[in-house]
Amino acid sequence: MSPSSRAESITERFLRKWPLPRVDPGGSKETRGEVLVVGGAPQMPGAVILAATAALRAGAGKLQIATVGSVAPLIAAQVPEALVVGLPQTRKGGIAPSAAGEIGRRSRTADAVLIGPGMVDRTATCGLVLKLLRQLDGKVVLDAEALACASVDRRAIAAAKAELALTPHAGEMAQMLAEPISGIERDRAGTALRAARTLRAVVALKGAETFIAAPGGRLLCNRDAGNAGLGTSGSGDTLSGIVVGLAARGADLLKSAAWAVFLHGRAGDILARKVGPLGYLARELLAEIPREMARLSRRG
Question: How many CB atoms sit inside 10 A of residue 42's CB?
């Protein structure tokens, strides 16, 4: 049996039998977890704004954003719900590796950390991520430019203290594994499984069919939600933000990824009906997430 054919399908029924952690009706923002999002650059401040907002839309209670100093005031104005920290930056606009100590200190109060949205300067990013992987624990999601460190030092990812989730598209996966993209596309399910085992991380290989693999060999696939309109700038940042928001609330990373992929796809389906099959924006996905999450979470 091929990996693709044995993958468990993520459907509404599947998710209702695998619910998110219950929300304490008498609880506060502290009981729903804190997210730290690390990312952004002068060229792309919007990516970290989308990811951070998505984490709150997924129900996280508190939010910190660590970004380059030059855009920190802008991001603070756009996401007033967040505590925003400005970090030293490189000439290319990346977060300097010397910021690892400050990020590590900020992470101590966080229940889940996302690294990658909107980051630039690959050399600096890889240096920063590899430093952080030696000190962070708990739940960590790597996306976008942060995934490039897998092509530099795969062993460092596999040896990380933290529980990791990686959210590459096929091009990023090809770079991570140093393999042709054509081979990735021919066996997306098998590639996701192989990457999960090699990197000891939950891996969500994004695409028309998104395969989510766990290091232990469990394989899930979303075929029921989503459409071509999700292939738009900022869509991946929104998805990674949902993953980290659900993880902060207490879901394990496999469950967080499965729910996030389905919610993200279903939000796109709703917008395709409202706006049109193409042309809706990544930021418009955000408002659809809480309603769809509430609907899928209803019991009885």
Answer: 16
Entry pTM = 0.96
Domain of residue 71, residue span: 30-205+230-297
Give the per-residue pLDDT at 243.
98
Q: Is the dihedral of CA 171, 90, 39, 202 positive or negative?
A: positive
The confidence score (pLDDT) of residue 129 equals 96
Quick one: pLDDT at residue 152?
83
pLDDT digits (tens, 9 = 90+) for 53-88: 999 999 999 999 999 999 999 999 999 999 999 999
What is the CB neighbour count within 10 angstroms for residue 217? Answer: 10
Report yes or no on 142 lying in a domain.
yes
What's the number of domains the chain is made of? 1
- CB contact set of 105 (below 8 Å; sequence gap of 6+): none
Residue 133 lies in a domain: yes
| CATH number of the domain to which 106 belongs | 3.40.1190.20
CB 21 within 8 A of CB 248: no
DSSP one-letter code for 23: P
d(Cα 93, Cα 96) in Å, to the nearest integer? 9
Q: Give me the residue label for tokens 């990791």.
A: 164
Residue at 171 is within a domain? yes
| Residue in the structure block whose two tokens are 């090809």 | 174
Query: For residues 91-126, b (16+ Cβ closer than 10 Å) or e, as one string?
Result: eebbbbbebbeebeebbeebbbbbbbbbbbbbebbb
Q: Which residues in the chain show pLDDT less than 70?
A: 1, 299-300
> What's the confidence (pLDDT) of residue 298?
83
- Does residue 6 lie in a domain region? no
pLDDT at site 264:
98
